[in-house]
């Protein structure tokens, strides 16, 4: 049995996605067998973590070389128990503020212990990306579990485990072994809010460094395509830039860093507690040009009735040099994602909201300004179809080439021309075969890989993501 099954979706959602990836344009280009095969690979890849941890460096505070030395020392400490601890930390040739760390695994020969802890699927996903198990994520633990016990941790794929259970025989996926930091009664019988690490992972199936409270001022964990977005936007010091849906602030802080903290970066999000994370991240990375506002992006354009603010939203038309619309989306490109319980109605609900936000963005953008639209999903409706709609609805917009262009071109199916598809950037997990290369420093095949091999793999083995870049012509 493979380490991970394919992603679990509701039948109507899987049927919808299957039709998306078997649209007429794709069938004409690749045939039924080719499109079916690629879709099955995609479902398998979505349940697995990307093959690399991407670390964005805060070059505003320190040099790449300095941060790399600090990071190397930290990783050597964490992975000291490996027989061969020659884990590479790779600079990205096209992204000067990025370091890549290969994920070790999946390690399919780990022993499984009789004491089993069951965690929720989101908690299990986090473990596969290097996290420990925090107590609120634990659903089931053995009756006599005490601190110091060695346990095997499983993810509840179908959401059927009852909180407080002592065992669970349902559909579950092994994510590794660890040591209990709490006894069972402290997890399930306490009146106090749960916090802290419940299980400290010692043998995760996919071994990645844990970055909890590690070099917090110097590094920011982001998926590779999310870093690419900032470089595609290409902010310039002194400009006024809007990040319309900014939480938790990864792209906002990247934009500010690329501007050398000179200019003005306006970050908006309509959820107050998410906005606090933006402020915290900006303070942590010591970036002062960011101004964060709790505001609904669909109402960010000033009208005669609302009037414009001299500082915060709503804003006057044509008041920003560049705008990033990292739009709310169905998130179906996120990895690892072993189970998605969303209904088809929920998956389809984002396109209208994205268009409202996009319309506001176009009106807020100065003539000659740049608008970058991005999502972390794989559907046509939220990606290429939105580009086709935008070009038809706003004659003032022109698609632009992207630099760097590390992903593939746009997907067929939205009646865009071949030249237009080439100007889009789609990161497609299906581009790496299901049996694709994984790093293990103890295997000869891994040790013989060149740095170029690793970079090529890292550019493909990412979350599902989409980027479009427009310029507003005068």
Task: Give a brief description.
This protein is of the alpha/beta class and 474 residues long.
Structural account:
- 30% of the residues lie in helices and 21% in strands.
- The protein is of the alpha/beta class and 474 residues long.
- The strands form 3 sheets. Strands 11, 12, 13, 14, 15, 16, 17 and 18 form an 8-stranded mixed beta sheet that branches.
- Helix 6 (224-233) packs across helix 7.
- The radius of gyration is 23 Å and the shape is globular.
Instruction: Please compute the radius of gyration using only Cα atoms.
Output: 23 Å
In quaternary terms, these chains amount to single chain
Shape: globular
Number of helices: 14
The amount of helix comes to: 25-40%
| SS content category | alpha/beta
Largest sheet properties: 8 strands, mixed
Span between N and C termini?
Answer: 58 Å
Q: What is the tally of beta strands?
A: 18
Strand content: 15-25%
What are the segments in which pLDDT stays under 50 over at least 5 consecutive residues? none
* Average pLDDT score: 92
């Amino acid at each position: 049995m493979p380490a991970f099954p394919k992603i679990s979706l509701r039948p109507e959602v899987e049927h919808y996605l299957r039709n998306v990836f078997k649209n007429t344009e794709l069938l004409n280009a690749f045939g039924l067998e080719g499109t079916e095969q690629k879709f099955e690979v995609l479902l398998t890849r979505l349940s697995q973590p990307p093959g690399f941890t991407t670390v964005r460096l805060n070059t505003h505070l320190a040099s790449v070389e300095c941060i790399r030395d600090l990071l190397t020392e930290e990783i050597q400490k964490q992975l000291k128990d490996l027989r061969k601890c020659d884990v590479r930390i790779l600079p990205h040739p096209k992204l000067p503020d990025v370091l890549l760390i290969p994920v070790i695994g999946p390690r399919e020969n780990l022993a499984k212990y009789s004491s089993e802890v069951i965690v929720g699927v989101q908690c299990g996903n986090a473990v596969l990306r290097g996290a420990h198990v925090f107590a609120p994520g634990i659903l089931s633990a053995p009756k006599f579990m005490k601190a110091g016990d060695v346990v095997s941790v499983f993810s509840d794929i179908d959401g059927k485990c009852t909180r407080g259970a002592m065992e669970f025989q349902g559909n579950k996926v092994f994510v590794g072994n660890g040591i209990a930091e709490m006894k069972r009664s402290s997890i399930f019988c306490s009146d106090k809010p749960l916090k802290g690490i419940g299980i400290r992972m010692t043998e995760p199936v996919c071994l990645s460094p844990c970055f909890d409270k590690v070099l917090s001022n110097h590094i920011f964990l982001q998926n590779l395509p999310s870093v690419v977005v900032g470089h595609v936007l290409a902010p310039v010091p002194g400009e006024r830039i809007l990040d319309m849906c900014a939480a938790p602030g990864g792209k906002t802080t990247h934009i500010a860093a690329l501007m050398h903290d000179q200019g003005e970066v306006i970050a908006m999000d309509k959820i107050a507690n998410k906005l606090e994370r933006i402020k915290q991240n900006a303070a942590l990375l010591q970036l002062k040009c960011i101004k964060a506002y709790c505001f609904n992006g669909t109402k960010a354009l000033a009208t005669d009735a609302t009037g414009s603010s001299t500082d915060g939203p709503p804003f006057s038309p044509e008041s920003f040099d560049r705008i990033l619309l990292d739009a709310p989306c169905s998130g179906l490109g996120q990895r690892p994602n072993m189970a998605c319980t969303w209904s088809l109605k929920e998956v389809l609900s984002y396109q209208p909201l994205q268009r409202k936000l996009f319309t506001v963005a176009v009106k807020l953008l100065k003539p000659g300004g740049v608008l970058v639209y991005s999502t972390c999903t794989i559907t046509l409706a939220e990606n290429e179809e939105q580009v086709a709609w935008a070009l038809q609805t706003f004659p003032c917009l022109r698609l632009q080439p992207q630099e760097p262009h590390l992903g593939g071109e746009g997907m067929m199916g939205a009646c865009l021309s071949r030249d237009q598809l080439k100007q889009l950037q789609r990161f497609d997990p299906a581009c790496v075969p299901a049996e694709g290369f994984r790093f293990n420093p103890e295997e000869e095949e891994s040790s013989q890989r060149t740095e170029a091999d690793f970079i090529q793999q890292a550019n493909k083995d990412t979350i599902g993501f989409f980027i479009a870049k427009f310029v507003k012509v005068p």
